[in-house]
Amino acid sequence: MNAIIHSGQPGLEGLQYSTCPTPEAGLGQVVVELRAAGLNHRDLFIMSDRTPQDTPLIPGSDGAGIVVEVGKDVQHISIGQEVIIHPTLGWEHTADVPVVPDIVGGPSDGTLAQYITLPASNVLPKPEHLSWIEAGVLSLSALTAYRALFTRGGLKAGEHLLIPGIGGGVATYALLMALAAGAKVTVTSRSEVKRAEALRLGAHQALDSHADWNDTMNSGEPVDIILDSIGQVMFHKYESVIRPGGRIVMFGASSGDDLHLPIRSIFFPQISLIGTSMGSREEFVQMLDWVKKHKIHPVVDSTYPLQNTAQAFERMEKGEQFGNIAITMH
Question: CA-CA distance, 256 to 184, in Å (whole number)?
Answer without folding.
Answer: 29
